[in-house]
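Here is the promised in-class demo. Please do not try to memorize the tokens; focus on the logic of going from shape to residues.
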């Protein structure tokens, strides 16, 4: 069993990357029934590839990735789409440096989002979001262009945004970066909530966080690539283990 290669599909197409990213998100604690989506800006047009509606993140293959153009037209036209397409469309039009967007309802993100503005980094996973995490204090689904524009304005040039009582959005210059951001942010939020629940006081100073941030940002691309490669190998091993189990 090979979860990475799909017969008849080039392994490096954006649709393939988006579907792989969806399965990684599911494996990394971003499950919420059939909700949450991942998209990638298309190469030649002001369009984007995005997961279709009705499937869990774990069920997505490259055949379940549709193309949405600037007017909202979907290819193939018969597929069901998520209601939050304006979230993606407005972020892509306001952030030309963004080529991929992940939106999930990860449980810890929902909990953390209920206490807006009380975020602080107390782990390596949290450092990349210091000064780069925004909060959207509106629990509505992002189903209109106006809400999409408000979300984009609140995110500004940030890396991620928590949506009150709803979940998270992360952006990246690549699918890999948007997914790694979502994985690290979820872990950082889980660590922070665990620290709060166990009454651990904050121990990292602003200076210590700034020093770590400088170190991580200097090797940002290599760090993202290394984490992504691990996540792909982890997904492959999980699929192999399930296959062995089924065939025994
Ligand atoms: Zn949502």
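The designed amino acids, position by position:
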């Amino acid at each position: 069993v090979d979860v990475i290669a799909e017969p008849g599909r080039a392994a490096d197409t954006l649709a393939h990357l988006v579907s792989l990213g969806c399965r990684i998100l599911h494996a990394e604690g971003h499950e919420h029934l059939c909700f949450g989506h991942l998209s990638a800006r298309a190469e030649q047009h002001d369009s984007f590839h995005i997961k279709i509606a009705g499937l869990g993140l774990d069920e997505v293959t490259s055949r379940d990735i549709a193309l949405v153009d600037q007017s909202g037209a979907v290819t193939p036209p018969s597929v069901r789409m998520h209601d939050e397409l304006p979230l993606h469309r407005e972020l892509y039009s306001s952030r030309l440096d963004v080529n991929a967007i992940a939106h999930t309802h990860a449980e810890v993100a929902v909990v953390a989002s209920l206490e807006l503005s009380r975020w602080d980094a107390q782990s390596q996973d949290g450092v990349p979001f210091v000064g780069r995490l925004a909060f959207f204090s509106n629990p509505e689904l992002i189903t209109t262009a106006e809400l999409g524009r408000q979300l984009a304005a609140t995110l500004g040039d940030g890396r991620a945004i928590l949506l009150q009582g709803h979940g998270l959005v992360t952006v990246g210059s690549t699918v890999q970066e948007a997914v790694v951001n979502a994985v690290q942010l979820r872990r950082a939020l889980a660590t922070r909530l665990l620290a709060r629940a166990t009454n651990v006081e904050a121990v990292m100073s602003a200076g210590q966080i700034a020093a770590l941030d400088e170190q991580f940002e200097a090797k940002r691309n290599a760090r993202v690539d290394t984490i992504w490669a691990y996540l792909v190998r982890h997904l492959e091993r999980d699929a192999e283990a399930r296959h062995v189990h089924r065939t025994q």
